[in-house]
Specification:
By secondary structure, this protein is of the alpha/beta class. 46% of the residues lie in helices and 14% in strands. Helix 16 crosses helix 18.
C-alpha cells in the first residue's frame, strides 16, 4: 500500500562509493518534504557499507546490503517490495538531482492527472562534475517553463528517431501505479540495454509527457559506464529495432511511414558504426551486420523452411490451448515477422497463416490482455468478417471491451439471427455452415451471455440449449447444459419444469465408470481413523461471495471428530486460499485436471463425504461427482435446486426451505438443518450501520444491488407499483449493467415506460467498495423468482431491511429462510400484492426503519445465520447421521 504524497528515491549502487555519495547527498538536499531514500548495495567490497554508517541516524535513508545479486534484476527487484511511495524516482549512483526537482515535478503530476511521465532537460557532467553543456539535448525552444506532449506524440518521436530524449532515470518522475513493468521486467522481456526506454514507452501508452526546459538533474558521463562498451552499443541498436517492430505490430505510436523512418535511422546508425573500428571489436558484430543487412533488404529477420514453419505454428497452437499466453505471444510476434521469408509457402498459404496469426492475436487480447492492442485486433477481424470464426472473434473483442450491445448486434447481423418465440433462428445458413461445430458452439455461447446481460433469460436458455446439440465434446455439452439450468432460475417456471430440466443433466454425465467403494474396507478404515474425512470441492475457495457462506464449515470444524480436505477448481488463489491451505488437513488445486483425473485424485485421499459447493454455477465439480470419488456425496450452498445427478446422495438445505412436497423435486435425499443451511461470515472490515437516510431526507429510498439479470419485467412492474403508492419515494439500483451506456438506456426506457420519471431513480455502476452506498438506501427490494443471497446478507448487515418474496420453491424461498432465521418475518411476503403492501407499510414508519438500521446487525449476529458454533454443531451432526446411514 503506497503512502500518499511520498516519493521513493531508489538508488542501486555497485562499487562507486565516491560518486554514489554525491548522488545520495543530492537526494537528501531535496526541498520536497516527503521523501524516503532506498539504497540497494550489491558492491563486491564493503566501502559503501562503511560510508553508509554516516547516514544511519537519518530516518529518510534505508540501506540494504544485497551481496547475492548477480544481475540487474536481482539488484533492482527488492525496490518493488520495499518502496512505499506514491511516486518513484529512479537514480543511478553517478547522477545528481537538483534541489527543486521533486517539488516541481510532484506538483505537475498532482495538477495534471492525465500526465504519466515528467522529465526535464538535463545537464551532462564529466567525472569531475564539470558541465558538458554543449551536449544538452534541447527539446523546448520557447520560453515556457515546461511543455506537455501527448503520449502518442512523444512515443512516436522516440521510436522513429531511436532517441531517448526523455532521459535517463534520474531525469524522470512518475506515479508508481502507472507502471507495471519496472527495470527487471523490461530486462526479462529482453530489453537489457534500453530497459528505461521500454518503461517510458509503457507510461506513454497510458498518458502524456511533461518536459521541463531547464535542467533538474545532471547525468554523468564517464568511461566506466556499461553503455560505452561496443557489445552494448550494438545490442542497443538491435533492441531498438525489436522494440519499434513490437509497437508497429501493435499499432501503437508507429504507422508504416514512421516505422520505415525508424529502420532508416537504424540503417544510418549501422553505416556510421561500421566506420568505427572500435565497434567492430564487439563479439556480436557479425550477427549485427547480418541482421541489419537483412532488415535493409526488407527480408525477414528469420529465414525458415516450410516444414519448420508448420512445426512452429503447431507449437503456437499448443501454447494457446495450454493457456501459456506469454510464451504464445512471444512466439506469435516472432512468426509474424518471419512469415514473408518462409521458403515454399504459396501466396494463398501465407494469406491463411497471416489471418490465423491475427486470430491468435485477438484470442490473446480476449483471454489474457497480453497483446493489449484492442483497436488493431478489431481492425484485423473486420478485414476477415467473411470468415465465421473472425466474425465471432470480432464480437468477442467487443464483449471484452465492454461494448456489449455491439457484441450482440455483430453476431445477429453476421449470421442474420432472429428470434421466434425465444428460439434462435439462423438466417445466413450458408455462412453459418462454413463454421465448424466448435465455432458454432462458441457463437451460441457468447450470444447466450449477451442475452443474459441484457435481461433476456429465455433467449439465453435457448442459446445454451442449442449449443448443447451443436458440438459433440461431452465436457462442452455439460458446461452448456449447466449454463442452461443456471439461467433457468431467472425465468418463471413451475417446480415440475425445474425438475424436468435438471433431470436432463444426468444423461450427459452418465454413463461413466463410477469408482468402486468397498464398504467393509471403509468401515475398517473409519474404525482405525475415528474421524470422518470431509472433502470440499469448489471453484470459490478464494475471495468470492460464496466464501462468505462456507468459511465457517472450512475453518470451525471439530478437529477431534473430523478432517477437512479442500479441492479448489479455480486458477486463482489468494490470501484466503493460503489460509485454508495452512489451516485444513489437506489442500489440492485440481483446476487443470480432467474430471476423471480429479475423481481419481480425490478417491486416493480416502474422502468419506465429498461436498460440492457450486452446483450448476461456473466451473462446477459435478462432472467429477459423476465418477463417484467418495462413498457419500453432497451438494449445496452454491446452488439452490436439484443437480439432477444420480450420483449425488444428499442436498444440503434447512427447515425454512423444506415444505411437504419439496423432496419430490430433488433426485437427492435432503440433508435438512434445523435453522440455516449456511453461516454468513463477513470476510472484511464492514462499515458501521447508520441512521436511516429517510430521517434526514424526508423521503424513502428503495433499492437493489442485485445482478441486473434478475430485474425481469414483473419485478420492475412491482417496484414501479411500490413507488407509485409511496409518494416522493425513490429507487436506487446498482449493477455492472449500468456501466454500459446501452444497458443504462435499456433500463431507463423500461422504468420510464412504467411511469417512473428519471428524477425518481438512480442507476449506479459496479464498484468493489460498494458497502458504504447502503447508507443511501432505506429499504432493499429483493428480486424474484431468483432472490438475492450475498447482496441480501450485505444489506441486512449494513442495517437495511429487505422485502423478499417467496414462491414455495426451494430456490425461490432463499430470502424467506434468511429473514426467518434473523427474526425479520415482517419482511417476508408470499404474493406480489403482499410484497407491495409490506414495502408500503415499512416505508410509512420512519421510527421502525431507523430502529432496524441501527439494530439489524446485532439481530443478525445473535441469530443462527451468524452463530458459527451452533451452525457447525448442526452441520456436523448432519454429517454424522448420513455417514452412519452409509456404514449401516
Amino acid at each position: 500500500m503506497s503512502v500518499k504524497g511520498l516519493v521513493s528515491i531508489l538508488i542501486p549502487t555497485y562499487n562507486r562509493p565516491v560518486l554514489f555519495e554525491e548522488t545520495l547527498r543530492s537526494a537528501l538536499a531535496q526541498t520536497y518534504p516527503q521523501v524516503e531514500i532506498l539504497v540497494n548495495d550489491n558492491s563486491t567490497n564493503e566501502d559503501t557499507a562503511l560510508l553508509m554508517k554516516k547516514y544511519e541516524a537519518d530516518p529518510r535513508v534505508h540501506y540494504f546490503r544485497n551481496r547475492t545479486a548477480k544481475c540487474k534484476a536481482d539488484n533492482f527487484r527488492p525496490f518493488e517490495r520495499k518502496a512505499r511511495g506514491e511516486y518513484l524516482q529512479w537514480c543511478m549512483d553517478d547522477d545528481i538531482l537538483l534541489p527543486d526537482k521533486l517539488a516541481v515535478m510532484v506538483q505537475v503530476l498532482r495538477d495534471n492527472p492525465e500526465v504519466t511521465l515528467v522529465s526535464s532537460q538535463r545537464d551532462f557532467i564529466d567525472e569531475k562534475g564539470h558541465s558538458l553543456s554543449n551536449e544538452r539535448c534541447m527539446m523546448i525552444n520557447d520560453d515556457a517553463l515546461w511543455r506537455c506532449y501527448t503520449g502518442r506524440e512523444a512515443g512516436r518521436f522516440m521510436l522513429a528517431n531511436c532517441s531517448n530524449f526523455i532521459g535517463e532515470p534520474s531525469a524522470v518522475l512518475f506515479r508508481r501505479q502507472d507502471l507495471a513493468h519496472h527495470y527487471w521486467e523490461a530486462d526479462c522481456r529482453g530489453y537489457k540495454t534500453i530497459s528505461d526506454v521500454a518503461m517510458w514507452l509503457e507510461l506513454l501508452e497510458k498518458g502524456d509527457l511533461v518536459l521541463f526546459r531547464e535542467p533538474l538533474s545532471c547525468y554523468r558521463r564517464h568511461g566506466a559506464q556499461e553503455g560505452q562498451q561496443p557489445e552494448v552499443i550494438l545490442l542497443s541498436r538491435l533492441e531498438w529495432l525489436r522494440l519499434a517492430g513490437e509497437y508497429y505490430q501493435r499499432g501503437i505510436f508507429l504507422d508504416a511511414e514512421s516505422y520505415r523512418q525508424t529502420k532508416e535511422q537504424l540503417w544510418q546508425d549501422y553505416l556510421q558504426l561500421g566506420r568505427n573500428g572500435y565497434v567492430q571489436q564487439a563479439r556480436n558484430y557479425q550477427q549485427y551486420v547480418e541482421i541489419m543487412e537483412l532488415m535493409h533488404e526488407n527480408k525477414s529477420l528469420c529465414s525458415m523452411k516450410k516444414d519448420k514453419w508448420y512445426a512452429e505454428m503447431e507449437k503456437l497452437r499448443d501454447l494457446v490451448d495450454a493457456r501459456q499466453y506469454e510464451a504464445a505471444d512471444k512466439l506469435r510476434r516472432e512468426l509474424n515477422q518471419a512469415i514473408y521469408g518462409v521458403a515454399g509457402l504459396t501466396g494463398v498459404e501465407k494469406g491463411d497463416f497471416v489471418r490465423e496469426l491475427a486470430e491468435i492475436a485477438a484470442v490473446l487480447v480476449i483471454e489474457s490482455g497480453i497483446n493489449d492492442n484492442m483497436e488493431k485486433s478489431v481492425a484485423d477481424m473486420k478485414q476477415y468478417e467473411d470468415n465465421p470464426y473472425c466474425a465471432f472473434l470480432l464480437a468477442r473483442l467487443y464483449w471484452r471491451d465492454n461494448k456489449h450491445l455491439l457484441a450482440m448486434t455483430t453476431l445477429e447481423e453476421s449470421f442474420q439471427i432472429s428470434w421466434l418465440e425465444d428460439t434462435v433462428q439462423i438466417g445466413a445458413l450458408a455462412f453459418w455452415n462454413k463454421a465448424v461445430p466448435a465455432v458454432q458452439e462458441l457463437i451460441l455461447n457468447l450470444l447466450g451471455q449477451c442475452c443474459k446481460f441484457f435481461g433476456l433469460p429465455q433467449r439465453a436458455c435457448a442459446c445454451y440449449l442449442q449449443a448443447v446439440d451443436t458440438y459433440e465434446a461431452v465436457s462442452t455439452k455439460r458446461e452448456n447444459y449447466s449454463n442452461y439450468l443456471f439461467n433457468s432460475h431467472y425465468v418463471f417456471l413451475s417446480k415440475e419444469e425445474y425438475l424436468l430440466r435438471h433431470l436432463g443433466y444426468n444423461s450427459l454425465a452418465q454413463p461413466v465408470a463410477c469408482l468402486h467403494h468397498n464398504r467393509k474396507q471403509i468401515k475398517r478404515r473409519f474404525r482405525s481413523r475415528k474421524k470422518i474425512r470431509i472433502g470440499y470441492l469448489s471453484p470459490d475457495l478464494r475471495y468470492h461471495v460464496v466464501l462468505l457462506f462456507i468459511w465457517a464449515m472450512l475453518t470451525k470444524y471439530s478437529r477431534d471428530d473430523f478432517e477437512v480436505y479442500c479441492f479448489s477448481k479455480s486458477p486463482v488463489e489468494d490470501e484466503y486460499s493460503e489460509y485454508l491451505r495452512q489451516n485444513t488437513d489437506g489442500w489440492c488445486n485440481i483446476h487443470r485436471l480432467a474430471p476423471q483425473q480429479a475423481a481419481k485424485l480425490i478417491r486416493q485421499q480416502e474422502i468419506d463425504i465429498l461436498v460440492e459447493l457450486a452446483g450448476h454455477s461456473k466451473n462446477n465439480g459435478l462432472p467429477i461427482l459423476a465418477y463417484k470419488p467418495a462413498p457419500v456425496q453432497v451438494c449445496g450452498i452454491g446452488y439452490f435446486a436439484t443437480t439432477g445427478l444420480q450420483t449425488v446422495d444428499y442436498f444440503l438445505t434447512d427447515s425454512h426451505l423444506v415444505h411437504e412436497d419439496t423432496a419430490k423435486y430433488f433426485v437427492e435425499n435432503l440433508l435438512v438443518l434445523p435453522h440455516s443451511h449456511f453461516c454468513y461470515v463477513p470476510m472484511r472490515t464492514m462499515p458501521e450501520p447508520r441512521q436511516a437516510p429517510c430521517r434526514k431526507k424526508g423521503y424513502v429510498t428503495f433499492g437493489s444491488f442485485n445482478n441486473a439479470s434478475k430485474l425481469n419485467d414483473v419485478v420492475l412492474e412491482t417496484w414501479a407499483a411500490i413507488l407509485q403508492q409511496v409518494p416522493e419515494s425513490k429507487l436506487l439500483l446498482k449493477a455492472n449493467l449500468f456501466d454500459d451506456a446501452d444497458g443504462r438506456a435499456l433500463l431507463t426506457a423500461k422504468l420510464t415506460a412504467l411511469g417512473i420519471s428519471e428524477e425518481r431513480f438512480e442507476l449506479r455502476g459496479f464498484s468493489f467498495n460498494y458497502l458504504p452506498e447502503y447508507y443511501d438506501m432505506d429499504i432493499a427490494l429483493d428480486t424474484f423468482p431468483y432472490p438475492g443471497g450475498g447482496t441480501t446478507c450485505d444489506a441486512l448487515y449494513m442495517g437495511v431491511p429487505v422485502i423478499t418474496l417467496g414462491d414455495g420453491s426451494h430456490g425461490g424461498d432463499f430470502g424467506i429462510s434468511l429473514m426467518q432465521n434473523i427474526g425479520l418475518d415482517i419482511a417476508c411476503a408470499f404474493s406480489v400484492a403482499e410484497y407491495i403492501e409490506k414495502a408500503k407499510l415499512l416505508a410509512g414508519d420512519f421510527e421502525l426503519l431507523d430502529a432496524l438500521h441501527l439494530g439489524l446487525r446485532k439481530m443478525m449476529e445473535n441469530s443462527p445465520l451468524m452463530d458459527q458454533a451452533a451452525y457447525m454443531r448442526e452441520l456436523e451432526e448432519g454429517y454424522r447421521e448420513i455417514w452412519q446411514a452409509y456404514l449401516g
